[in-house]
């Protein structure tokens, strides 16, 4: 049961990894923007706008609140692209340690006139790509180790260190491992 769940999570992670790699490569030539608008339930006269921006090796999540009523006919979701002329300078302005690595997190103070607030989170693509690569890499490593163990078992070698056990099948003279009964 646990193995099946892990396999499904790993499969999902692999799909995400491929999506991240594709977007990462694409982000250097084309900027992608995805917008989601929603009326805030806590403040019915405010529009919440979440946008995701993929650009120049960075993945950004922006959140805006504006004092405005959402037009019932307006599309809630929008995607737009923009061809980049050349390498863009990073949107990161304050050069802290995390900013140098490509991370940024900020929240503006509410504007007294428009009561608009903005907050954003920027991640360098290597970060989500690395995270989604962990489970697939573990799975590949386990698969390779299992295959090596089967091969050693088949060839009469020690499963731990690969020493030839045809002369001493009870115990490995090299590492001391006692082979499992076949
Ligand atoms: Zn051994």
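Q: What amino acid sequence fits the structure above?
A:
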């Amino acid at each position: 049961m646990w193995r099946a769940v892990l396999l499904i999570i790993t499969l999902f992670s692999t799909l995400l990894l491929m999506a991240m790699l594709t977007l990462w490569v694409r982000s250097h030539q084309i900027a992608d923007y995805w917008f989601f608008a929603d009326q805030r339930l806590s403040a019915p006269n405010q529009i919440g706008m979440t946008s995701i921006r993929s650009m120049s090796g960075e993945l950004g999540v922006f959140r805006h609140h504006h004092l405005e009523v959402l037009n019932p006919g307006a599309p809630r979701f929008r995607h737009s692209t923009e061809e980049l002329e050349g390498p863009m300078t990073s949107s990161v302005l304050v050069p802290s340690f995390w900013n140098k690595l490509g991370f940024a997190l900020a929240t503006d103070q509410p504007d007294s006139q428009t009561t608009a607030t903005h907050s954003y989170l920027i991640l360098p693509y290597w970060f989500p790509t690395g995270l989604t690569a962990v489970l697939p890499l573990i799975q590949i490593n386990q698969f390779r180790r299992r295959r090596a163990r089967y091969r050693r078992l088949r060839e009469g070698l020690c499963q731990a260190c690969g020493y030839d056990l045809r002369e001493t099948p009870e115990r490995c003279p090299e590492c001391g491992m006692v082979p499992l009964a076949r």
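Q: And what stands out in the fold?
A: The radius of gyration is 26 Å.
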